[in-house]
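Please, structure for the following, as tokens.
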Amino acid sequence: MLFEFLAELEVEEMGVAVPTEIRDLVEPFRIWQEGIVDRERRSGRYVMPGAINQAGLTNAMDRAQAAIQRGDPSGYRSSSQIATAMRLHHLINHLLCQGVAASRYFLSRMEAEDSKSKSAKDFLRDPRVRSLSDRLLEMDEIHSKVGAVRRMVRERVKRDPESRIIVFANYRDTVEALEKALDGLEGIKAIQFIGQSSRSGSGGLTPKQQISRLEEFRSGGANVLVATSVGEEGLDIPSADLVVFYEPVSSEIRTIQRRGRTGRRRGGEVVVLIAEGTRDESAKDSARRKEEFMHKAARRVSRGLSGNPHRDLSNLSRFSVSNGDVSGSAADFVLEARERHRGELSEKDETPSDVGRKAREELPPESFRPRGQTGLDQF
């Protein structure tokens, strides 16, 4: 019934290749991280199987802290090493999934922290990290994602100068890098939209500044909003024609909220950038599985609900529907819409009568199991 009032939403997943030069930068840090995790596996602190991930590192840190609480002195060394592995994890993901500029900002923020731990100071003094910092300062942005965002934004604004575009990124480092990458493109004015909290080396926006930037985006003073997760919910973000996920998020709720920023009043497009061979791919799959489970749960709940207590539409008696100069009862509108979209049933079933029989005959006998058998142990 509501189909004719909904705007079309097109979702595209775009895979981008990570440049070889960036993968070469990552390799020594990957080896460093694997060495730490291998030692922690042998000590029984890192226990999660598979590839190294944030959940596994967090679990290992919890185990190290528990060892310290028990009076085990080896927990202190493990805690320091796992903290280094976590920093390496963030640095590797910044390089592979975010880009050169975002990684540069990430290291600069660590340097700017006033209260660095001994582990952080040792990390920044490491020759490998110092060498990477120097190289990043000399490098131009070469990550394919940044180029893809610039191309999509430029083409959209060229096609429709009145377009509004939102680019979502997980990290403030990336937001700052993207704003600078879009600066100078013809017909494009990009502004940041981040949270209120101030973090090391990065000040947040005050509520007044947030409202001012949203108004600038709404009025057309800026046509590209580069936002962190603060733009996903809770605030009156204007609708956009194009929404770009700089990286997929593993949360199904955040994914749906981001998609909801376009396609409200007119057709919209969502593009999700996925760096091939990185954590982006697992985040995309995770969000998809969680969204499918959510839809299944919603269907289970709806099946358990009692029947509609207002089948006669008596709850709409005080409402009316206006369409231009014509106004009428809301109940009549619903009944008319139901009738208009009601599916037509054929007068007779024209399905060949032997289809089901042939399908059954083609099944081999070993496909069937005895009644009551629930597993191989009962074979």
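Residues 252 and 293 are 10 Å apart (CA to CA). The chain has two domains: 3-16+143-297, 20-138.
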